[in-house]
Amino acid sequence: MASLDKYRSFLSEEEVKHVQWRFGAPPNYDAVNKLFEEGRTKVWPKGSVEEKVQNLVKTWEMEMFHKVRLEDIKTFDPNNFSFSLNGKKSMTVQEIAKIGGGYNAFLQTSLPEKFRGYDPAHETVDTAHLAFTTTFPRGFAVEILEVYSGPPVIVYKFRHWGFMEGPFKGHAPTGEMAEFYGMAIFHLDEESKIVKVEFFFDRGELLAGLMKNKGDTDTSGNSSTEGASCPFLKSV
Question: Which run of H or E residues covers position 209?
């Protein structure tokens, strides 16, 4: 079945009908695909390892953020899956859900609370989704810059970017690009399903771009200037 999205699998008309979507309907990637095509630095040949990895990453992110039921997952094995960030303790799908979903898993931090800017401990799946879709109304694109090894252990370098056209935690929009770079390792099983994911990046690289304009108080009642005073954010 042909997917309705040219960069993500499992989004055909028939497939989407049988999925329980987190926000009530399948995601529409038209805006972020346009952002991706206008801002990417690499155009990989069709059928190349790089293109296949890029589409796998986009499809995996779609399932992580938008599918609710484990039985609807196609790219990874939810019963044997683990996720880790910057070498921290790995988490299962259930543990990721317990801490508030994908955004919170990607933005884990050991900074003191007053320096966090974005604090996963105080965010839910819904508040995190609202925060970032408000900040990036056109979406947050991802491209693969390099693939260092192919399956079953895929090692790649990536770039994520978007334009801050909405407020973030009380910080006024800049209209400027916010981006960060990182590395990731995907481990696939004999059925080509992802069983282990390891990400390595500096979350401060992203948050520094979102906290340039000082605000007063965010919707949760936390001072939005506290994170901006973080010495780590000032150095990136």
Answer: helix 203-210
